[in-house]
Automatic annotation (TrEMBL):
NCBIfam families: CxxC_CxxC_SSSS. This is Putative regulatory protein, FmdB family. It comes from Halomonas cupida. Residues 67-85 have a biased composition (Low complexity). InterPro entries: Regulatory_FmdB_Zinc_ribbon. It holds the Pfam family Zn_ribbon_8. Residues 1-42 form the Putative regulatory protein FmdB zinc ribbon domain.
């Protein structure tokens, strides 16, 4: 279930709520009881860590960075290095 952020127009109170996608948005502020609560648009935050599907299945053999590797690849190169601007 996603975590939604809300902010009250009346008092400025902000909160986060774990809700189903199909659930109706909240409208009543728990701080001031006004019906001025709006759902905010925010970036989703997640991280794929460890030796999961991306590391083992989708990278080319020369670019794998598996846990336990002794840093055989170049760690100072960034994805945009070498590209003409």
């Amino acid at each position: 279930m996603p975590i939604y952020e809300y902010q009250c127009k009346a008092c400025g109170h902000r909160l986060e709520k774990l809700q189903k996608i199909s659930a109706a948005p909240l409208t009543d502020c728990p701080s001031c009881d006004a019906s001025e609560l709006n759902r905010l648009v925010s970036a989703a935050g997640f991280r794929l860590a460890g030796g999961g599907w991306y590391e083992t299945d989708f990278k080319t053999s020369g670019k794998k960075n598996l846990a336990g590797d002794s840093g055989s690849g170049s760690s100072s190169a960034s994805p945009g290095d070498g590209a003409a601007a």
